[in-house]
Structures are given as structure tokens and as C-alpha cells.
Please model this.
Amino acid sequence: MRYLIYGAGAVGGVIGGRLHAAGNDVVLIARGAHLDALQRNGLELHTPEGVEHLAVPTVGDPREADLRGDDVVLLTMKGQDTVAALDALTAVAPPGITVVCAQNGVNNEREALRRFARTYAMCVWLPAMYVTPGIVVQHSSPIAGALPIGRYPNGVDERAAAIAADLTAAGFASQPDPAILRAKYRKLLSNLGNALDAVVTDGFRSDLYTEVQAEGDAVLAAAGIDVQPVEEAQRQHVTIKEVPGHEWLGSSSKQSLARGTGSIEADFLNGEIVLLGRLHGVPTPINELLQREANEAARAGRAPGSRTLEELVAQLR
Model:
């Protein structure tokens, strides 16, 4: 199998870099200054153990990758960029290609399955960071990350087992999971604090983080969605460690504001709970507020932590 890592930022860079270092055939797909740096100097992967310089082939568009029917395409971009990426992939992908959604949220797989029959879901527990073009940081050791995988919407097969085996050999904890969506909904609940982490300082330590998760719990229960128990999710334990010269910045949403990308994934995290709440008659004021605040911060180009917790609580009241 050849792996195409579509969206070689933090998560994609670590997965692609580790797979390449383990001897797999890997192509990264990146854009902008990051693409230029990767093509000029290769991927610079920083880990708690040191720095690796990896000459991973990199292109700027799926059209440049000479796609084959047995390729595995890992989508690792943010949810707001998924549809455009899938449209570009659909224009050149041969029948039978495998698409794996290694992303936060639960909407990416729906969009992929509209276009590709062989769609897989991957739950990503991987503390990674990308702020500087050409450099990605893996803030975890000795396991690089936990990456269970399954067919979408459920089940496992030989392809899922083969991908999990390659990831395990590359330093990840990965196994086929026939009920992978249970895990992804549990991860969604944890990601509801990403917007809070982005717009205020120490948001994860506030009562509002507990409250936004409780709101999500109520919505998923009303929707009749099966969610992986916390105890089961905790088995996917990943230890965050310091990397010399790279202070851990925080959630992927906070990193988006730090890079000034102009967009953020709140519509596909908090927005998923808002959507389900409206469909099933459950109020979601905290998720609505965080979705709105995160989007406004991204559009305005505000730095992380531009609001205070007191300001958000005052709006809720």
C-alpha cells in the first residue's frame, strides 16, 4: 500500500513522517509555505527523543500524485477544508481507492462516503503541533499516538487490519475497531473544549469546559447515539511530553488562531452538537456561544486568549 497524507500539518505530518521512517511508501500533500518548505528541505519532525529530517515526497495537489487504485488516502485536514479536498480528490481518484478520515468530528466520513465506497473512520489521539512551515512536533512518547480504525459506518476488514499493523509498526497504538464511531463521538465530546481553549486562557481548567461537555452528553443521549464509555477511551492513553524548544501550545483550534489561518473547525465540533440539539429539541447555549466566538476570532485574526472567561459567562447569563 502507498499512503497519501492529504493535509500534512500537525497530525498528518507526524503520521506521514512516522510511516515514512518505518519504510512505508508515503506521499505528503500540503499547501502554501508549508509545501514550499517540505519540498525544499524535507520534513523536520521534532519529538521528545530528538529531531528527525525526513525526505518525504511532497506534492501540492492530488493531481500530482499519480493516484492508484490500491492507494490509501488519509484525510488529515480540518473539517472546514474536507469538502474542497474531497472534490479535488474525486476529480482524479481511480475506483476502489481507500479514504481514511483521520480527523476530529463526525461529519468528514459522511462527506467521504458520498464519493468513495471504501471509507474508513479513524479516532485520533495524537498531541501534535504545526506552527512553523516545514516543522511538525510530536508531543508524545513512547507511543506516538493512539489511532484505532474501522470501516464507516461500522465493521472491520483486511484493509483496516493492514493499516493498523503499519501504524503500529511505525510507533502508534492502532487496532481495528468495528464500532469506531463510538470512539469518535467520545473524542467529539472532549473536543468541545477546543474553541474554549482557543478564545480564553486556561479554558480547559474552567467549569465551562465541564458544562459544555455535559451539554454534549445530553444532546447525544437525546439523539440515541452510542458513545464509548470514558473508561474505555482512557485505555487509549497517550503521554504528553516536553519537546526541547517547542512549548505545547494547546488544541488544534488554538493552533489555528496562533497561525492566523482565518478559519477554525468549531462548526464541525461545537456545531455538530448545536445541529443535533436543534434536531432533537435540546438547548445548546454554551456550544452555540463557543461556536460563534471561535468563528469570530478566526475571521478577525485575533490571537488565542483574546477573551476572558468572565466575558463569556456574562454573555451566557
In short: DSSP finds 13 helices and eleven strands in the chain. The longest helix spans residues 207-222. The chain has two domains: 2-178, 185-239+246-316. The two ends are 54 Å apart (CA to CA).
